[in-house]
Design brief:
single chain, about 900 residues, alpha/beta, Rossmann fold, Isoleucyl-tRNA Synthetase, domain 2, Isoleucyl-tRNA Synthetase, Domain 1, 4-stranded antiparallel β-sheet, 4-stranded mixed β-sheet, 27 helices, about 20% strand, globular
């Protein structure tokens, strides 16, 4: 089949993806083959493809396609997360545009709107992943809120409650006043914000009356002073220690509160006096617990001040801050204010400032679960890549706080807890079983007497079951149940590719769930990607306008070009500085592969043409080089150094195959386009192997060219074709060819520097080791008419001499050489190497160095000395050859 002159990915990509789907190459069912299983980190149903998704899913696809080509039964499970907060926000906004408020409709009506929205928008990102080439088993597409997975969530809740691992209690949580729900730590984005530090006068109380002396207390939140219950100082602070036990009055409301002492207070922050507001600050809450202080909550759920504030009731917290500042100033309580930069938490979904809030919520006890999850990583059963994240993981597991799992939303799995009229609670998987449990407490209870908890569970409470529930949704909550065929075959999965920022919130919790319900790890390797940033190192965002549209990039550069551009600059755990020139490089490589293939295909295979010796040597060299390359690729893959794999293959193709191999074997002008059959067939074989090695990274162009290599049957594909076998390699022979390449490059350099035409043939004298069988390659590639081995330097004048390794080479140049320029250059090199040798000699004459340095370091220095001495001798000889 004739290929067009220019590679057009828009034609190739759609054609082959449809072909792969048609023949169900992505589909997997359990069989007798070794398996390779991966579960996709489920993107939110509200999401569209961004560069982070591109990187994460390209890495997964590389691993999956490689495993498939190894003959493994490969299963990559796709799916989406129902994203409670984000989705509910989308639906609420959509209804608002229609003039409908959430409070005006029932839960069931709201969920109908939510499901309708999900069906319309929820799979957009998965369709976009297909354009990237993601080879997921789309028949297995899962959703964290489908009926089976929702049952798994409910059963898990019931099990943990019955085991005493879930409880209901009042704790400090992250509260989103705009979303009207608690949010998890990972849903809080901390930003640096310019605030003010207000220094307020807390007058001492004398029998409840204001004294003329006061304590100066610094705060960034004057709107919460009405909730203060104490002023705290450090017990070691000599300025205030004698005041502990005294009382002060809260500005504006003159409420009396005590002065207490606690080591938590930093003496050099502000004035060293800290106002304690347990209801509105997590650190204050802990101090309050230690000192048995009361809790005064002055904020409503929507962030407005309630009646307990006494003043500014009904005002929004930020409006109250502005107003109370004026009130404090007018009444003489504001001593001063200073600019202050601090970290403020914002809701990831609504961008509202998070309010620390004491709230009655459902929690999972994590002490035992975290300890067991830590052991899997510490013992090496779960491998974190890169290993540097083990310390982070250990810290999080050892300091894990109980997990708040209730959310004040409607979209999600409703908590399976029912309340009796007297406030008692029963937990059961459904209303019928809840009634049965309630009637054991009170036989007169009827179904209508029970009220189910209106909250839903945290989205992570469904996604922590993901590696189990996608295969066997009946297993979570039932550790003694025999796993079904799918779970028994695919679990534990092999690799997980995800971001380090959810190492605790998702990865660790999946390890906990796997241990709880399957008694083993959920995956073996966790590859942690970095963040994709712009070339200036900034986080990509719409507001900065530095976040490129992945679909637009693929339309311009092709999916293979974008994949390659991302993979060339990624390494586990390190951020990527993305520049569009990288994907341009990927597109250029696609064009290079395409043009190289078209060049080879333009030659005419001649079965009667004898094999030239240059071609024979080139084939011998490149076949060994590919054998070494395959070994190197396997080693790098085993270490998950994926970008190094791709860079190696890039250099092998562009530099070694195109710039060297094809140049050596290309038909001579006398032969026209005819090439001997042996060399031609070997070249197509090399192309076949290179396409196989590149396929995981660049699936579309490799499929297109592989299909063109020879006539293929319907249903054949490179993605299920084993990688061709390679022979052995001889390291010494490869080293010989490497020196040959140095020699040819050096001679070409001489021609360029001395402006010697390619048509001017040169002679080459060699003193030292050089393999004779490679002489024909040098003569052809360097434009030589004679090669002679000598035992001493040639006697003719104006000889250009150079050294490669320990072998000396001489090129008689006669009048072509400017002797004065050459003498100056050689003397400069000689001075450099003499200085270098002196430094090495000084080091080797140091007995302390010889005794303490490792043996290999000393050996390296001795080799440097011998190489420098050989170079100096060669330079002296070159100078002697100049006339």
């Amino acid at each position: 089949m004739e290929l067009p002159a220019i590679y057009d990915p828009s034609v190739t990509e759609g054609k082959w993806y449809s072909y792969w789907l048609k023949h169900r190459f992505f589909h997997s069912i359990p069989d007798q083959r070794p398996k390779y299983s991966v579960v996709i980190p489920p993107p939110n149903v509200t999401g569209v493809l961004h560069m982070g998704h591109m990187l994460n899913n390209t890495i997964q696809d590389v691993l999956v396609r490689r495993a498939r080509m190894q003959g493994k039964n490969t299963c990559w499970v796709p799916g989406t997360d129902h994203a409670s907060i984000a989705t509910e926000a989308k639906v609420v906004a959509l209804l608002k545009k229609k003039g409908i408020h959430k409070s005006d409709i029932t839960r069931e009506e709201f969920l109908q709107h939510a499901w309708k929205w999900k069906e319309k928008h929820g799979n957009i990102i998965l369709e976009q992943l297909k354009k990237l080439g993601a080879s997921c088993d789309w028949d297995r597409t899962a959703f964290t809120m489908n009926p089976a997975m929702s049952r798994a969530v409910v059963d898990t809740f019931v099990f943990l409650y019955n085991q005493g691992l879930i409880y209901r209690g009042v704790r400090m949580v992250n509260w989103d006043p705009q979303g009207g729900t608690a949010v998890s730590d990972e849903e809080v984005i901390h930003r640096e914000v310019k605030e003010k530090l207000y220094y307020l006068k807390y007058y001492f109380s004398r029998n409840g009356k204001r004294d003329n002396k006061y304590l100066s207390v610094a705060t960034t939140r004057p709107e919460t002073i009405m909730a203060d219950v104490a002023v705290c100082v450090n017990p070691q602070d000599e300025r205030y220690a004698h005041l502990v036990g005294e009382k002060v009055l809260i500005p504006l409301i003159d409420k009396e509160i005590p002065i207490i002492a606690d080591d938590y207070v930093t003496m050099d922050f502000g004035t060293g006096c800290l106002k304690i507001t347990p209801a509105h600050d997590p650190n204050d809450y802990e101090i309050g617990l230690r000192h048995k202080l009361p809790v005064v909550d002055i904020l409503n759920l929507d962030g407005t001040l309630n009646a307990d504030a006494r003043i500014l009731v009904g005002k929004d917290r930020f409006e109250a801050r502005r107003k109370i500042r004026l009130m404090l100033q007018q009444d003489g309580f504001l001593e001063k204010e200073e600019p202050y930069v601090t970290q403020v938490g914002f809701s990831e979904r609504t961008d509202a400032v998070i309010e620390p809030r004491l709230s009655l919520q459902w929690f999972v006890k994590l002490d035992i679960l975290a300890a067991r999850a830590l052991k899997y990583v510490e013992d090496g059963h779960v491998r974190l890549i890169p290993d540097k994240y083990r310390n982070t993981y250990r810290h999080w597991m050892e300091t894990a706080r109980d997990w708040c799992i209730s959310r004040q939303l409607w979209w999600g799995q409703q908590i399976p807890a029912w309340y009796l009229p007297d406030g008692e609670v029963v937990v059961a998987p459904n209303a019928e079983e809840a009634l049965a449990l309630a009637q054991k407490k009170n036989f007169a209870i009827k179904a209508e007497d029970l009220k189910q908890d209106p909250d839903v569970v945290d989205t992570w409470f469904s996604s922590w079951l993901w590696p189990i529930s996608v295969f066997d949704p009946e297993k979570p909550g039932h550790p003694d149940k025999t796993p079904n065929r799918e779970l028994a075959y695919y679990y534990p999965t092999d690799d997980l590719v995800t971001a380090p920022d959810i190492l605790f919130f998702w990865v660790a919790r999946m390890i906990m769930a796997g241990d709880l319900f399957c008694g083993q790890k959920p995956f073996t390797n966790v590859y942690l990607t970095g963040m994709v940033r712009d070339k200036m190192g900034r986080k990509m965002s719409k507001s900065l306008g530095n976040s490129p549209d992945p679909i637009g990039l693929m339309n311009v550069y092709g999916a293979d070009g974008v994949r390659m551009g991302l993979m060339l600059c990624t390494s586990a755990g390190n951020d990527i500085l993305f520049d569009e020139t990288q994907v341009e490089q990927g597109r250029n490589f696609c064009n290079k592969i395409w043009n190289a293939y078209r060049l080879v295909r333009s030659w005419q295979r001649d079965p009667y043409l004898p094999v030239e010796e240059t071609s024979r040597q080139a084939v011998r060299w490149f076949s060994q080089l590919l054998a070494l390359t395959r070994e190197e690729v396997e080693d790098l893959f085993s270490k998950y150094r994926l970008s190094e794999v791709l860079m190696l293959l890039y250099k092998r193709f562009w530099d070694d195959f195109c710039s060297w191999y094809l140049e050596i074997i290309k038909p001579s002008a006398d032969a026209g386009k005819r090439i001997d059959a042996t060399t031609y067939d070997a070249t197509l074989g090399f192309f076949d192997l290179l396409l196989h090695l590149l396929h995981p990274f660049m699936p579309f162009i490799t499929e297109e060219l592989w299909q063109n290599l020879k006539d293929r049957k319907e249903g054949e594909s490179i993605m299920v074709s084993p990688v061709p076998e390679t022979g052995t390699y001889n390291a010494a022979e490869l080293e010989d060819f490497s020196r040959l390449q140095e020699l040819i490059t050096a001679i070409r350099g001489v021609r360029q520097n001395k402006q010697i035409s390619r048509q001017t043939e040169l002679k080459l004298y060699i003193r030292g080791y050089f393999p004779d069988h490679l002489s024909v390659v040098v003569m052809r590639m360097a434009g030589l008419n004679q090669i002679m081995k000598v035992t001493q330097a040639p006697g003719e004048g104006n000889v250009y001499a150079f050294l490669i390794g320990t072998t000396e080479f001489f090129i008689p140049l006669g009048h072509l050489l400017n002797t004065e320029e050459e003498r100056t250059k050689l003397n400069g090199e000689l001075a450099y190497y003499r200085k270098f040798l002196a430094a090495v000699e000084k080091k080797l004459s140091n007995e302390n160095f010889l005794q303490r340095a490792p043996g290999e370091v000393v050996a390296t220095e001795r080799k440097k000395r011998s190489d420098a001495m050989a170079k100096i001798a060669a330079l002296k000889q070159q100078l002697s050859l100049l006339q």
